[in-house]
Amino acid sequence: MFALFSLDSDMSSSASTIHDKAAFEQFYDQTYLQVYRYIYGLHGGPAEDVEDLTADTYFRAWKARKRFDGDGKAAYSWILTIARNLVIDSYRKNKRSIQLQHFEDPERFEIEDKSLIHPEDELVADEKQKILLEILFSLPIDTREMIVLRYSLGWPMKQIADRFDMLENTVTVRIRRAFTQIRKVWPA
Amino acid sequence: MNDKKNNQRNQGPTDNEFEEMLVQFKPVPGKSFHIRMQTAPWKKTSRLNHVAHSSTNFIPRSQTMRLAVLVSSILILTIIGFAAAPTIKTAAKQFFSFFISAETDTISIPITVGQDGNLVVYDTPGYFSMDIAAITEKIEFDMLIIPEQPQGVKYSGANYNKETASVTIQYDGADKTIYFTQRPTDSMLEFSSVGASAPIESVIVKGQPGEFVVGGWRALENNSITTPDHMMEINGNLNIYWDPNQSQRIIRWEGKGVTYEILAIGQGLSKAILLEIAESLAPIPTK
Are B191 and B252 within 8 A, CB to CB? Predict the structure, then answer.
């Protein structure tokens, strides 16, 4: 059901380094969409800011690549950490509340199978998704990140648990609790 | 089972519905992002790759914006600083026109001439008839005085010029006179000019940059034409010339929003003595 993205064997085996141009370009091509969505999920937009943060993320990674030592899997985790730090920095700098603008440009979003969605249902679904995301951004960033990794990026629970150095069950519970929390404030 | 209970209790979506909504949240970057990233330094196919060999050639838009804001801020602050801050203004004045050199060593001005030919407006009888206490009530800055009278001169009076907001204190002696003038820098009055050939020496007075000049404008004692170095003419106004050998020394500087000038005429007032006098300046003692 879920179009889960996970680190495939290609990435972890082929991108053993990101030091040279070709390897970094390959790394970028393989990861930029996930990084963009990850940042969008944590940051909340608008899209231009997310694009800037995504560009900044790769620019920093490019500059620091010589100090990185690891395989593609580690590089992917590393660049997400860079992205996360940039998002947190942007919060601090802007000191702003999140203003969601996810629906400013419908073409920016991919629908899994549009043929299955009736236009009216799509509107309702969009509205619900908008509400969900707005509430999501009131959650702690760790919880938000778990949800983004799980659903937007499609990470398996095990991988998320490893990233947060937690048990899988703990991550699952945190996400379920978040849903409960969201439901509590869900508009009637 | 739990989802159904939650749904019934809160009328909100189930966990599964949440999951489906989240999975469908898949934003993609716009075209502008891809265009911008084409110039990234790691792009082999970049159209600009031939000039983007180093990472320094690739600057994300946010960094460009930050850079532009930074440069603009520095520019604005510099302009404000030059306009408002006395110390910066002093530096600016010193850089541009602390002492304004005339285009030539001869100029034409309407001015009172002293008996000895020196251009000293202060020679006007009764010019220094005010006392310092009366002047302090008229001015809006903290006036300084020379606390100990320099050797060979004594306090002989003061003047307050309302038009220039200047205070001048005169210390007179047998063969020398000191005029100490101060006025708010905000009055934006420039110092008077010096001859084009006058050497200007930089000095530090009370920690502030200042300038020292030897010489002065001199008028002819009569309408004769010849001087040692310059040809002078009287054409209605008084024509004067810059005399580097005139026994006159000037120190000028700015500090705490006030412009100071010590003009010494006569013998025995060397640069060192004038600097010593300048450093000794102090506020009027409170009773």
Answer: yes
State the smallest CA–CA distance between residue B59 and chain A in angstroms: 8
What is the residue-level pLDDT of chain B in tens, covering all 287 positions? 455 554 445 567 888 888 988 888 888 998 888 888 888 888 765 444 444 444 444 555 666 777 888 888 888 887 776 666 555 555 554 444 455 555 556 554 444 444 555 544 555 566 788 888 888 888 888 889 888 888 888 888 898 887 778 899 989 888 888 999 998 876 655 556 677 777 888 899 988 888 898 988 776 555 443 443 443 333 345 566 778 888 889 998 888 888 899 999 888 888 999 999 999 999 887 75
Radius of gyration of chain B (CA): 34
DSSP collapsed to 3 states, A136-168: HCCCCHHHHHHHHHHHHCCCCHHHHHHHHCCCH
Would you say the C-alpha torsion B147, B153, B158, B164 has a positive or negative sign? negative
Whether the pTM exceeds 0.80: the reply is no
Please report residues of B whose CB lies closer than 8 A to that of A154.
23
How many angstroms separate the CA of residue B149 from the nearest CA in chain A?
Answer: 59
Structural contact between residues A91 and A84, judged by C-beta atoms closer than 8 angstroms: no
Q: Where are the alpha helices (DSSP H) in chain B?
A: 2-10, 15-23, 31-37, 61-84, 86-96, 132-136, 271-280
Residues in B touching A109 (Cβ below 8 Å): 24-28
Q: Looking at beta carbons, which residues of chain A come within 8 Å of B41? A: 21, 62
Contact status of B32 with chain A (Cβ, < 8 Å)? yes
Q: What is the pLDDT of residue B49?
A: 44
Of A40, A108, A183, the CB nearest to B6: A183
> Which amino acid does the sequence have at B17?
E
**Whether the Cβ atoms of residue A45 and residue A87 lie closer than 8 Å to each other:** no
Could you tell me if B163 and B141 are in contact, meaning their C-beta atoms sit under 8 angstroms apart? no
Give the Cα separation of B101 and B90 in Å (integer): 17
What's the ipTM? 0.76
CB contact under 8 A, B17 and A128: yes
Nearest to B19 among A128, A151, A180 (CB): A151
How many CA atoms does the CB half-sphere of B255 hold within 13 Å? 18
Of B15, B28, B62, the CB nearest to A179: B15
Mean pLDDT of A48-60: 91
Inter-chain CB proximity B26 and A109 less than 8 Å: yes
Burial of B189 (0-12, 13-18, 19+ CB in 10 A): middle
